């Protein structure tokens, strides 16, 4: 039963303890404000912990790139403060076709100093892949273990005085207060950062902004060579997923070839990539499907597709699966959702699958507006 009694006050109440919510809590504490975070689960368990842990900075463009660059600085600072590992080895984009290499060459000219072109030998020195004819290194990209980093950030914020109300559901949200399953929180300002569940609280707003759920097939597999892979690894299929690639003239040629030669992969929305977890296993994926409600059933052929293409990329016959899961994030035509449903309340979501990359850059902009 929901209590009507008041059980706390704060300058800023944040609903949602995923990375977007934590970014706003962090930024508010940096400004000397008192903060309370309301999270329906006993710990973050959504998109923020089900991803590659990849700060995919260089592949962004426009406003997203600005947010990503700002977020990079905060991630580096937080890693020291909160005591989690952060990798600064960057990303290797593997080119396995001439048009992919041409696109990377164009991007290197467009992004002077942010992209280093690699020949075949240089690619193989960094990552264990097959079929590479060259590639590029993105030195600004970073990597964390999402299973560790998000919880470490929350713990660090708690040490700084942020109050966390775990296993607490927000029922009503309005100017000056949030009604929860444990009582009413009074707040001068409210940030609603519930990711793909925007429609649970503000269905009209979600419909107006065409917010859907994007579901992803992802797996953890044994690294077949017993090798440390410090870099994140992207491929030609990744070039269909990120704005910096789309801004290049060569992008259309890459898309046309992949649609012609690999229609099943494109139809599945496969972003063929991997990162390595601290124990050595690889996080691989990922397919993309869009709908308002994610079906409870996993299509085995999509897992098989991810496994087969990753094995081909690594030059092995098969991979040993450790875990399988469904990732989910908010998706919409615009990459960022920031709305004001009522005075002193902001609904915030990263609606493009780049929350880990951009949240710590987005939060200062949102709070500048909210506190003005």
Automatic annotation (TrEMBL):
GO cellular component terms listed in the entry, alphabetical order: cytoplasm
One of the Pfam families matching this protein, by short name: DAO
FAD dependent oxidoreductase domain segment(s): 11-363
Entry superkingdom: Bacteria
Cofactor(s) the record lists: FAD
Gene3D superfamilies given in the database record: D-Amino Acid Oxidase, subunit A, domain 2, FAD/NAD(P)-binding domain
Name listed for the protein in its UniProt record: FAD dependent oxidoreductase TIGR03364
InterPro entries xref list: FAD-dep_OxRdtase, FAD-dependent_OxRdtase_HpnW, FAD/NAD-bd_sf
Organism field: Prauserella sediminis
GO molecular function, one term: oxidoreductase activity
Keywords, in A-Z order: Flavoprotein, Oxidoreductase
PANTHER family assigned to the protein according to its UniProt record, in alphabetical order: D-AMINO ACID DEHYDROGENASE (PTHR13847:SF286), SARCOSINE DEHYDROGENASE-RELATED (PTHR13847)
Protein family per UniProt: Belongs to the DadA oxidoreductase family.
């Amino acid at each position: 039963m929901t209590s009507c009694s008041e059980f706390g006050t704060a300058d800023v109440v944040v609903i949602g303890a995923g990375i977007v919510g934590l970014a706003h809590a962090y930024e508010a504490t940096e400004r000397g404000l008192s903060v309370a975070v309301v999270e329906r689960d006993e710990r973050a368990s959504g998109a923020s912990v089900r991803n590659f842990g990849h700060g995919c900075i260089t592949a962004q463009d426009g406003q997203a790139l600005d947010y990503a660059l700002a977020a990079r600085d905060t991630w580096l600072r937080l890693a020291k403060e909160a005591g989690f590992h952060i990798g600064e080895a960057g990303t290797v984009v593997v080119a396995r076709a001439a048009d992919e290499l041409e696109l990377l060459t164009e991007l290197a000219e467009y992004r002077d100093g942010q992209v280093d072109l690699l020949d075949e030998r240089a690619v193989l020195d960094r990552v264990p892949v097959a079929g590479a004819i060259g590639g590029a290194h993105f030195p600004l990209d970073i990597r964390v273990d999402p299973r560790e980093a998000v919880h470490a950030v929350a713990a660090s914020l708690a040490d700084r005085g942020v109050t966390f109300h775990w296993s607490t559901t927000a029922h009503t949200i309005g100017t000056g207060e949030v009604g929860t399953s444990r009582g009413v929180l009074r707040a001068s300002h409210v940030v609603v950062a519930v990711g793909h569940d925007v429609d649970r609280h503000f269905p009209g707003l979600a419909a107006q902004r065409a917010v859907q759920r994007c579901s992803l097939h992802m797996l953890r597999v044994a690294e077949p060579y017993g090798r440390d892979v410090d870099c994140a690894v992207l491929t030609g299929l990744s070039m269909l997923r990120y704005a910096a690639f789309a801004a290049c003239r060569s992008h259309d040629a890459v898309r046309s070839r992949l649609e012609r030669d690999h229609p099943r992969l494109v139809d599945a929305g496969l972003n063929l990539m991997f990162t390595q977890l601290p124990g050595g296993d690889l996080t691989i994926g990922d397919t993309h499907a869009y709908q308002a409600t994610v079906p409870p059933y996993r299509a085995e052929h999509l897992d098989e597709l991810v496994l087969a293409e990753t094995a081909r990329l690594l030059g092995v016959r098969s991979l040993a699966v450790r875990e399988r899961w469904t990732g989910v994030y908010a998706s919409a035509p615009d990459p960022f959702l920031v709305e004001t449903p009522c005075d002193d309340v902001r609904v915030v979501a990263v609606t493009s699958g780049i929350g880990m990359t951009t949240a710590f850059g987005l939060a200062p902009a949102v709070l500048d507006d909210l506190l003005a």
